[in-house]
Design a protein that fits this description.
This protein is mainly α. It has a domain at about 1-95. The protein has 12 helices and no strands. It has helices spanning about 5-10, 15-25, 40-50, 65-75, 90-100, 110-115, 115-125, 135-140, 140-155, 160-165, 170, 175-180. Helix 9 runs parallel beside helix 12 (about 175-180).
Length: about 180
């Protein structure tokens, strides 16, 4: 199957900054075929990620380390936080915004943020299963354990055993937690 006309055109105009400046407004993922200089242009990338956070995949490393770009991308598509630089995976503003939209980003977060009360709670609210990537301190916290299990039971019962197994032994043996797991 031949490539779509837009892709062929983008490949032909790989060095045409004005072409990409206009095209990302309607087809942001065309940025994939832009040259390195264009994929390092903050204005063009910012426009692209505001429409489709997935455009972050094609950004330069410098822009994957730009907080403004990352915040816009994760607001549009939380999962794009996986493309963030190591520095931004340790930035509470960026990771907190990302986990609000996709709790799975906790997996990529720095150890420091996996131990952050706000970040972990937002991640749990979005995706209770992700609790298994929280710090031991938080996995050993009764309130967090109860929240993860309760929300897990509401959202997706088939994964609740995974959430339970991620708890510390102390939490697994806690009577209140056992009651939540086995209501009668």
């Amino acid at each position: 199957m031949p490539d779509p006309v837009e892709v062929v055109e983008a490949r032909e105009k790989t060095n045409d900054k004005e072409f990409f400046r206009q095209r990302v407004k309607t087809m942001p993922l065309l940025i994939e075929w832009a040259n390195d200089e264009i994929r390092d242009d903050k204005e063009i990338l910012l426009e692209a990620v505001k429409i489709d956070g997935g455009a972050l995949e094609f950004a330069s490393d410098r822009l994957k380390d730009d907080k403004d770009i990352l915040l816009e991308a994760v607001k549009q598509a939380g999962w794009t936080g996986c493309y963030a630089s190591q520095k931004l995976l340790d930035d509470k503003d960026v990771v907190l915004e990302a986990v609000k939209h996709d709790g799975q980003i906790l997996y990529y977060a720095s150890s420091r943020l996996r131990d952050d009360d706000d970040v972990v709670m937002e991640a749990i609210k979005n995706k209770p299963l992700i609790f298994k990537y929280a710090s031991f301190r938080l996995r050993n916290n009764k309130e967090y354990a109860k929240t993860a299990i309760t929300l897990g039971m509401e959202k997706c019962k088939k994964y609740i055993d995974t959430v339970y197994q991620s708890l510390s032994e102390e939490m697994q043996n806690d009577e209140e937690i056992k009651k939540i797991m086995n209501p009668e």
